[in-house]
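Look over both lines before class:
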Amino acid sequence: MLETFLTEEKACAEPPERTTVEDGDEKEAEATAKVQRAVSKKRKPVDPEEDSVPPPPPTEPTEYALNRPRRDMTQASTYRNASQSLALVPCCRFLGCAGSGLAQAQPFKVEMDPSVAVLMDLHAHMCSNEVIGLLGGHFDAASRTILVQKVFPGRGKASGRDVEMDPVAEVEMRAEIAAAEMKVVGWYHSHPVFEPNPSHVDIDNQINYQSLFRDSDSGLEPFIAFIIGPYDLRLPTQESRLQTFYVQNRAGAAEPTPLQIDYTTSKVPLDDEVAASACKLVDSQAKVERRVSPTEILSRMEDDGADL
């Protein structure tokens, strides 16, 4: 009895057999290996030729796709941030003689008929929204000279902060310019109450137009932009401010650069044809949204004693 009791006490005193950490790691590794072997037996080797799906055959381009104007991607605009699109960008200056062909010089000379400035300014004064239009004239590649001869007022889609050309109106104006035996040499729009520096949207539009109207013979892009500021209260006088610009990719610049275009005004007197064009312009703006009455403006200026 005593011997049996001592044997049981000894068994209770001995610690039970334990699994060491090393033994546990080995068992876990062995279990993992078994799982991997089981998965590898079920996995089917991938045949690249079997799983690949051949691409669909390319579709034939339409006649429109073959003939539509192509945008020059070397001058693609980087202005895509909506928060920056309406920010104004001051224009830089060209260096050297206009039309000289030098790298930093204005690429062509510009000569403008005096009626162009008159009618653009009149159009800008007719509406408190931005207005827009095209300019007709000619380009002489030999002398590198743009002649801006006539204004073609257009219809725009104005939001109160910017304006885009109405596509139907643009087609009509381009047909009218061709009928007058002229070429499209520029466009204009207004900044009614703020300075006439181009916004990022204006720069983007100008890049597109320059590419569209590139001269195939000379490789130049004889297309310029005008911005008219008629009602900017910061102007020192009642006279509108006119800005003319062109866009280039300049060495070292991260973005396309707007550059001020210098121009001369030809010594051509204003005649009855210009007066008729002005009357036609006023009549065409009779039902335009947010139209401004020139008669009312003149009356207020007279009451305020402004110099006319």
About this structure: The CA atoms of residues 125 and 297 lie 10 Å apart. The first helix runs from residue 2 to 13. The radius of gyration is 37 Å.
